[in-house]
């Protein structure tokens, strides 16, 4: 018996070595092998394989990674990093796109391409701050409401429903009206109600899995509430949260851009995509590049997050997440 | 009977949401700014002036009592005076709301009448080219900033092609005043002035397309998904087995239950639609509530801003209530389940 299992093991490791050597094998071959011996492929590799076969997800991820990288590297890769500030060069104002100024120049002669890349920093910072605060808060409240039930559920979910009755942009406008418009306040304004969407999502998943055996088993073994919430329920919500977060990121960028388009977000001269579209729009249609190109830049990054979210949704098979 | 119970429950629940909404607005308007009296008077006012205004506004009373007074005034439709126009906020909002309502109704109709058929087409030709086209439309409509789309439409239709008016609600110099329902399209029809109706529709088209795009894409996606889901149900198989004609099966048995998810999504989408209306009204100089809201926000006119937020919230709650009723009509199962 022992000998047999030893032989088996040897055979398996030999097989693994074979597989490693033929990494260039065609996908059809690989699928056949996967079906024959699914245990030999690591889950990480399987996920990567499925991800890489999903064009939507790959294109989305590529766009997102590209935008994040250029935003981080902005001071070193932009042709005119000094144009971020209140630089004025009236001799070069309203120049159409050329090789020297890929996206042309704006009404005070600053390079729009450089400012767009720096603008990505603000957009992505907004995403990190808003989702970084909304997801933990929303997930925790959603899990508590779904797992504990009773009054916890009633209070949390009713508050969520009330918060949903206020459109995010309207709420942000109201906050901006009370506090003075600035980068921090606009982030606060967008973040303050964003958790509700995640609370609803996590709540509905928790409700579905609350009665399953593994939760019961953990309860019977005397696991604490924190263990059940964080170690039993949370891992089941992660994929749905990831999909939602990716779709949300694009939406956060759009809301942030709308706020600054209305003059209630980032203050000039800090480069912000929404502000740039607003300023450029007064020179339409002759100086189209001043608003159209920053607008396309917003579209581009939002598209990336959306495609990534769509792709992840197919990958994780969580169809009901929007 | 069950349906009635369902509606009563939903109605009561809506009232609760509105109470919560009033609390949120009270907190933003009275608690967050610190001292609204100081804010209204500016930094040059003396201590006595501030104390005087505080007393006049009731700000020197306990916070719970202040909230009580706030709600009492609210129940009479009194949101206080606007600092900007020095009129009652309710009067200001009433004047501008009709224009917003007209725009939003047109937007919903447009999103539904274009989005749902697109979804049906995508589901019928799943994984064929129409499906791909619809998917691309849906993705791009979701990721294009509304203000950007509005600007593009304005340039294209107004300045390049010269086919549609780009600002306002009616041609400049038109003396027509919509004074029956407040909706220019409806009122001009009621008065029999067809040229005005046409003009109003032409003005409505661009803002409505800009506002509808995002929702329309969602509608198409959701309709496609729910059509495909319903198509796999057993009773559809059964209807096929019974030899019921294709078109009856699609139109009657697949389409009707497929309407439920798009309807409910429309309710949720409505929130972001109101938000985007602010941008669209500003760009197209649409004389609506949102344009009023933006003006008052820039002027720090708190009463007016809170009025706009409150009305947006009430509008959202009412639309969702209406959608619940519609869903109940479309899908009898909801009526029975909802009553429990």
Question: What does this protein look like?
Answer:
The complex is a heterodimer of chains A (322) and B (340). By secondary structure, chain A is an all-alpha fold. Helix content of chain A is 72%, strand content 0%. Chain A is built from 14 helices and no strands. Chain A has helices spanning 2-21, 27-36, 43-52, 55-72, 74-77, 112-148, 150-164, 168-178, 183-191, 195-209, 213-220, 225-261, 273-281, 289-316. In chain A, helix 6 (112-148) runs parallel beside helix 14 (289-316) and helix 12 runs antiparallel to helix 14. The longest helix of chain A has 37 residues, at 112-148. The radius of gyration of chain A is 25 Å and the shape is elongated. The N and C termini of chain A lie far apart (53 Å). Mean pLDDT of chain A is 81; it is low at 1-34. Chain B has 340 residues and is mainly alpha-helical. Chain B contains 15 helices and no strands. Chain B has helices at 2-31, 36-41, 47-57, 63-75, 89-124, 129-143, 146-160, 184-190, 194-231, 234-241, 246-258, 260-283, 289-298, 302-330, 332-339. In chain B, helix 1 (2-31) packs across helix 15 and helix 14 (302-330) crosses helix 15. The model of chain B has no long low-confidence stretch (mean pLDDT 82). Classes of the chains: A mainly alpha (322), B mainly alpha (340). Chains A and B meet through helix 7, helix 8, helix 12, helix 13 and helix 14 of A and helix 1, helix 6, helix 7, helix 12 and helix 13 of B.
Features:
heterodimer, A: 322 residues, disordered N terminus, B: 340 residues, mainly alpha, 15 helices
**Estimated share of beta-strand residues of chain B:** under 5%
Q: Alpha-carbon distance between the termini of chain B?
A: 12 Å
Supply Rg of chain A: 25 Å
Inertia-based shape of chain B: globular
Q: How far apart lie the N and C ends of chain A?
A: 53 Å
Low-confidence stretches of chain A: 1-34
Alpha-beta content class of chain A: mainly alpha
Give the largest interface pair and sizes.
Answer: A-B, 48 and 55 residues
Helix content of chain A: over 70%
Secondary structure tally, helices of chain B = 15
Q: How many strands appear in the DSSP assignment of chain A?
A: 0
Q: What is the residue-averaged pLDDT of chain B?
A: 82
Q: Which sequence of SSEs, written as H and E, runs from N to C of chain B?
A: HHHHHHHHHHHHHHH
Largest sheet of chain B: none
* Radius of gyration of chain B from CA coordinates: 24 Å
